[in-house]
């Protein structure tokens, strides 16, 4: 899908496309939802989380569509920039970064921040973690007024907040490194990626002479820390262990998608320069062709990939996207259904996509099916705010305005826009019989105190 999305319960002003991020006047976090990449990062994280004694079900992974190398934890969420995956040539490099972040998570290193995030519940605060220091400073000083955090945030000096509040302490860095090494050992994975990622970042940072890299700024890595990592990593019996080829392929397919979405065919070529005939490079090229607005050429390219590897769910998903763009919604729904069937992670995003395509097709007789499909997707993934919009459209087409308004209210609620959620819930409620299940659902949204969420 690679659809912009929201981190449930966090968003107010959110999800500007990356191309416009620099001109953003408000702090924003471009969260993306994509079944393929989410599934991959989950597969990277889950063994590490278990090794850390954490329950994977209780930790949420949030993808941030930003090409800068960054990852961080906040509360029970792991945020990872797509740029971190793109820059990692092997799964093991991303896995190393995740292991380190999970080390911070397990160590409770940001407990003091968590309180503030829980209290403020706004994306502005989370954006502060990414370097919009003023928002962070405002929250920290207790002003907490989101409305007051107006324009110009992104450009104001964020260093104070980063150094003071958001940077981990050096002892915490060492602890996170040690924890990461333990998790990697327990899961029989190489610590080489961890070492390569951090050493690489440090080198780049020293060469450029300025501490411009947010990841480096928030994760202080003095030379002695790299030294420790180097020594400790090489003691691992798995140091020279390579990623399984199937995982490397999935990793490269994800990188191809990220490259295509963030820089088109040019970025795909820069990523896979040496081998443009590889499956990932051609996948990226097919997506870039689709995004450039050439559905016929894109379809031919993705069909060739499907012929070669019919069991790859993401090829069918991209085929669905292309067909949607070409106005062939019924075929798109079938392609998404195929992808959903093949998807080992059973992502709710794909399930919902089937229904979304049917809604776009607009045939009244398909709406019941569309509603059922979207509901199925939402059961798996209640945070999919785009799906609620389509659900509301589907109800609208069947003439059930109350249900359409209730679905809109749910979508706003999941997106963190509680005020609009209550407005639509109140409207919907007037159309239901008092104490009917839908009436009560609307009542819940109307009466729930936002702080509880
Ligand atoms: Zn760190």
From TrEMBL:
Keyword Protease included in the entry's annotation: yes
Alphabetized UniProt keyword annotations: Hydrolase, Metal-binding, Metalloprotease, Protease, Signal, TPR repeat, Zinc
The protein, known as: M48 family peptidase
Residues in TPR repeats: 313-346
Known cofactor(s): Zn(2+)
UniProt GO BP: proteolysis involved in protein catabolic process
Listed GO CC annotations: membrane
One Pfam family matching this protein: Peptidase_M48
Molecular function via GO: metal ion binding; metalloendopeptidase activity
PANTHER family: METALLOENDOPEPTIDASE OMA1 (PTHR22726), METALLOENDOPEPTIDASE OMA1, MITOCHONDRIAL (PTHR22726:SF1)
Secretion signal span: 1-21
Domain Peptidase M48: 42-231
């Amino acid at each position: 899908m690679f659809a912009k999305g929201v981190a449930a319960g966090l968003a107010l002003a959110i999800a500007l496309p990356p191309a416009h991020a620099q001109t953003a006047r408000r702090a924003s976090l471009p969260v993306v939802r994509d079944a393929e990449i989410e599934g991959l990062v989950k597969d990277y994280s889950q063994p590490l989380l278990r090794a850390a004694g954490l329950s994977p079900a209780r930790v949420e992974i949030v993808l941030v569509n930003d090409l800068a190398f960054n990852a961080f934890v906040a509360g029970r969420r792991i945020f990872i920039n797509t740029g971190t995956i793109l820059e990692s040539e092997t799964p093991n490099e991303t896995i190393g970064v995740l292991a380190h972040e999970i080390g911070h998570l397990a160590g409770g290193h940001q407990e003091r921040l968590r309180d503030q995030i829980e209290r403020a519940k706004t994306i502005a605060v989370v954006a502060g973690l990414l370097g919009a220091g003023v928002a962070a400073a405002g929250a920290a000083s207790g002003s907490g007024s989101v409305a007051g955090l107006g324009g110009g945030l992104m450009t104001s000096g964020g260093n104070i907040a980063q150094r003071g509040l958001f940077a981990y302490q050096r002892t915490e860095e060492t602890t996170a490194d040690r924890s990461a090494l333990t998790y990697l050992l327990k899961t029989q994975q190489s610590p080489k990626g961890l070492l390569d990622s951090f050493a690489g970042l440090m080198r780049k940072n020293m060469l450029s002479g300025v501490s411009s890299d947010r990841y480096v700024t928030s994760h202080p890595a003095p030379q002695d820390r790299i030294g420790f990592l180097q020594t400790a990593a090489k003691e691992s019996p798995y140091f020279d262990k390579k990623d399984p080829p199937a995982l490397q392929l999935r990793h490269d397919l994800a990188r191809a998608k990220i490259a295509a979405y963030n820089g088109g065919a040019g970025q795909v070529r820069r990523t896979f320069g040496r081998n443009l005939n590889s499956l990932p490079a051609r996948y990226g090229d097919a997506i870039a062709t689709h995004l450039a607005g050439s559905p016929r050429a894109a379809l031919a390219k993705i069909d060739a990939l499907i012929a070669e590897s019919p069991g790859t769910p993401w090829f069918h998903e991209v085929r669905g996207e292309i067909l949607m763009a070409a106005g062939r919604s019924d075929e798109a729904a079938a392609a998404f259904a195929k992808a959903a069937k093949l998807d080992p992670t059973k992502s709710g995003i794909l399930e919902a996509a089937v229904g979304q395509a049917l809604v776009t097709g607009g045939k009244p007789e398909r709406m019941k099916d569309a509603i059922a499909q979207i509901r199925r997707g939402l059961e798996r993934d209640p945070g999919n705010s785009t799906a609620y919009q389509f659900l509301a459209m589907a109800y609208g087409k069947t003439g059930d305005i109350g249900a359409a308004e209730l679905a809109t209210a749910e979508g706003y609620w999941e997106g963190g826009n509680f005020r609009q959620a209550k407005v639509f819930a109140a409207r919907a409620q007037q159309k239901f019989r008092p104490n009917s299940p839908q009436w009560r659902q609307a009542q819940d949204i109307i009466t729930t105190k936002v702080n509880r969420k």
